[in-house]
Write a structure and sequence with these properties.
This is Malonate decarboxylase holo-[acyl-carrier-protein] synthase. By secondary structure, this protein is an alpha+beta fold. Helix content is about 30%, strand content about 25%.
């Protein structure tokens, strides 16, 4: 069944009456930028919700090509439709030619682990909007949702190997946990005693043991 509401990193398109569903009034400049962006038919990224937000509210982000980050707080009725983050395979044509080999290796790694590799950040913004976001030093922000802890371990090992082979682009991103939280794959690969987890609402440090316990037992 499809999700009842968009999740963090999903992409939403606002309806024509979106401004009637504002929960927190933005400043005049933010309102102008958001209005212009929407009128060009471009989407917004779902951000982390605040702890006190209601279930019928949504926090959205708009990252502009000049790296300014704008925030929008709306009710769910403002959303006309939404979609998941684009897959890495979908964005390969958007990326610079020099990145293609590394991206192909990550796609192959995902296929070997039966994982769909998705993308957020600058590459996703450029792919979804058609506006130029990428710079020579841009990262590729990857998103993975492994089913078991053993998949996490194999994924981290594979990503480190790909990163060593391809220094032309930095591979960043997150591993999504079964409870909807997310952790940096690079931080997770270091196996720290505690690691920062970004949840659907708020963020907090947790232990590696707690993260492992979230995953179901191996079949």
């Amino acid at each position: 069944m499809p999700a009842e509401r968009p999740a963090r990193h999903d992409w939403v398109y606002l309806g024509t009456d979106w401004a009637h569903h504002l929960r927190s009034p933005p400043g005049p400049d933010v309102l102008r930028q958001v209005t212009e962006w929407r009128e060009h038919g471009r989407p917004f990224a779902v951000a982390r919700q605040d702890l006190l937000d209601q279930d019928d509210e949504l926090r959205l982000g708009l990252t502009l090509p000049d790296r300014r980050h704008l925030a929008l707080h709306v009710g769910l009725p403002a959303v006309e439709r939404w979609m998941p983050p684009p897959t890495l395979n979908e964005t390969r044509a958007t990326a610079p030619e020099a990145w293609r080999s590394a991206m192909e290796d990550v796609v192959a790694l995902g296929a070997a682990l039966d994982l769909t590799v998705r993308v957020f950040g600058s590459l996703a913004w450029q792919h979804r909007s058609g506006v130029s976001f990428l710079r020579p030093m841009s990262d590729v922000d990857l998103l993975f949702s492994p089913a078991h802890w053993s998949d996490v371990e194999r994924l981290l090992f594979g990503l480190e190997a790909v990163s060593r082979r391809h220094s032309v682009v930095r591979l960043d991103g997150e591993v999504v946990l079964p409870d909807g939280g997310a952790v940096s794959w690079r931080e997770l690969a270091l196996e720290p005693e505690r690691i920062w987890v970004t949840g659907p609402r708020g963020a907090s440090p947790r232990t590696l043991r707690e993260l492992r316990a979230l995953f179901p037992a191996e079949p």
